[in-house]
């Protein structure tokens, strides 16, 4: 009985970590058949793992844009200052199938420079 308890106690963290990894890497909740572009000024920037997020005001709604991880953004030449609040950007990507105002961005254009995110 003691051995079962130990195995169970050690298994729970592993299962939780695996579930988080699956949730993070799943892009199935975005409609790849409906690519579109939003051009607007950044309302909010969240530069954090696992993905950078920005909010853009578009058609009287606030859109949450899911970008690449911070490390990838930096290795491709983007810094938080470049996409901070008030900066005009253009993002191209796919709408969420779960939220009417969420997009997974494939590329972002800032100050005339286009950066591939995936």
UniProtKB/TrEMBL annotation:
It comes from the Bacteria. InterPro entries: DUF6152. Residues 1-23 form the signal peptide. Keywords: Signal. This is DUF4198 domain-containing protein. It comes from Phreatobacter stygius.
């Amino acid at each position: 009985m003691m051995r079962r308890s130990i195995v169970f106690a050690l298994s729970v963290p592993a299962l939780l970590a695996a579930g988080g990894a699956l949730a993070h890497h799943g892009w199935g909740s975005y409609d790849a058949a409906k690519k579109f572009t939003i051009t607007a000024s950044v309302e909010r920037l969240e530069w954090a793992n696992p993905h950078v997020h920005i909010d853009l005001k578009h058609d009287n709604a606030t859109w949450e844009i899911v970008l690449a991880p911070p490390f990838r953004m930096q290795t491709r030449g983007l810094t938080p200052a470049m996409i901070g609040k008030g900066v005009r950007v253009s993002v191209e990507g796919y709408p969420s199938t779960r939220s009417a105002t969420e997009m997974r961005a494939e590329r972002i254009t800032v100050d005339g420079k286009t950066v591939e995110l995936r």
